[in-house]
Each structure stands twice: as C-alpha cells, then as structure tokens.
Amino acid sequence: MGDRNTIRNKTLEAAGDQVLFGGSFIRNIFKGGFEWNEFIRQCYIIGNKSLPLVAVTGFILGFVLTLQSEPTMKQFGAQSFVPSMVAISVIREIGPVIIALICAGKVASSIGAELGSMKVTEQIDAMEVSGTNPIQYLVVTRILACTLMIPLLTIMADGIALIGGYAGVNISEKMNFSLYFSKAFSSLNFMDLVPATIKTFFFGFAIGFVGCYKGYNSDRGTESVGQAANSAVVSASFWIIVLDAVAVQLTSIFAYQ
C-alpha cells in the first residue's frame, strides 16, 4: 500500500511539475526580447539536420506500402486504385505518425541530452546568474522550432512517399508519372489534408516540450544525461500515439456530422 501511494505521489508531482513548466513556457513566449537568432538556429538544426533521415524514411514508406498492397489489389481487380490508396494512407495517417516517431527518436533525444548536459555542467545556473533567461533562450526557442519544423518535415516526407509509391508501381508495370499523381490526388479531399496537417503541429509541440522538460529537469549526475535522452524518446513517442488517437476520434466525429 505504501509503495502504491509513493508511486501515486510521484506521478502527481511529475504532472504538477510539467504543468508549471508549461506555464513558464507560455509566459516566456510573450516576454520581450525573443531570441530570434536562437530560434532560427534551432529551426535549421531540427529541420535541415533531420532532412536526410526523413526523406529516406518517406521514400521507403511509400515504396514498401505500394509493393505490399499491389498484389492484394490485383486479386480484386483494383490495381488502378493503388495510387489513391497509397496517397490516402500516407497523408492521412501513416506519414504523420511515422515521421513524428522518427523525429521523436532524433530530436527529442538530442534536446534532452543537450539540456541535460547543460544542467549537469551548471551552464543553466550560470545563465541565470548572468541575467539570461534560460527558459526563454533554451526552452521557448526549441519548442517553437519543433512545432514549426515537424509539420514541414511531414509534408515533405508525404511528397517523397508518393514518389516512392510511383517507383514501386513501376517495378511490375509502367505507369505515366502524371497519371499516377492524378490518380493519387483525385482521391484526396479537405478532411484528408487539413486534420492530418493540424495534428503534426501538436506532434511537434509534444516532441519539443518533452525533450526540453526531461533535459531541463534532469538530475545532477552524469548518468542523468542518458536517462533524460532515453526518457524523452519514450515519453514523446507515447504522447504522439495518444494525440494521434485523439485526432482520429475528433476527425471521425466532425467528418460524419
């Protein structure tokens, strides 16, 4: 019973700390002296440095999805619907979630390790002593950069996934490039594009927030750096799945009204 109460208290304490951390983040967004240079630098690091991994992932995603689904579609005489199926599957659900999970592994761990190292080496304390606002400089810029760049990376990956699907289709038979993309985009509508794009902003926020929180609140020991990075990946991946489940339910509710 005592262990259960201890776990419950620690959970509530962690939840309270995250709420306070989120409140501090929101307050510092609207404070004067926004760190534009650091924000742009973080956008470059998160976006440009993740570009090759996201591009390769997107291409393989579309390529493999096409190869796996084409034989089944042939059995039902629906091979011509492969481009539409790939486009809807990738853009509506698979693309945003897979890219967010990839970025959670790369970006959240990087932010957690970076801020954890700064906490261990007392660089954050030195910033506070020197009069610099560490929340505004370290946290706000990284969270906003993630919130902006993850949707852009997802859109790019979706486009590359369609190119991968085109390559997969042309392995077994030849299909004109314009015909393929005409079939792919003709099946998409407003409720496919907009909700899928909107939820990527929440994915990006979750990745940035979790990475910053885990790193900023890591312990003083050197082992805490690795623990912060690992915990950031696990927590960010969990919240991406939860947010996606909520987004799917909300999209279904509004789609059928």
Task: Give an overview in words.
The model has no long low-confidence stretch (mean pLDDT 87). This protein has helices at 2-29, 36-48, 51-75, 82-120, 123-129, 134-172, 177-186, 190-216, 223-255. The protein is elongated and about 70 Å long. The protein has one domain (35-255). 37% of the residues are buried. The longest helix has 39 residues, at 82-120. With 257 residues, the chain is mainly α. The protein has 9 helices and no strands. Helix 3 runs antiparallel to helix 4, helix 4 (82-120) packs antiparallel against helix 9 (223-255) and helix 6 packs across helix 8.
Short synopsis of the structure:
The chain is mostly helical and 257 residues long.
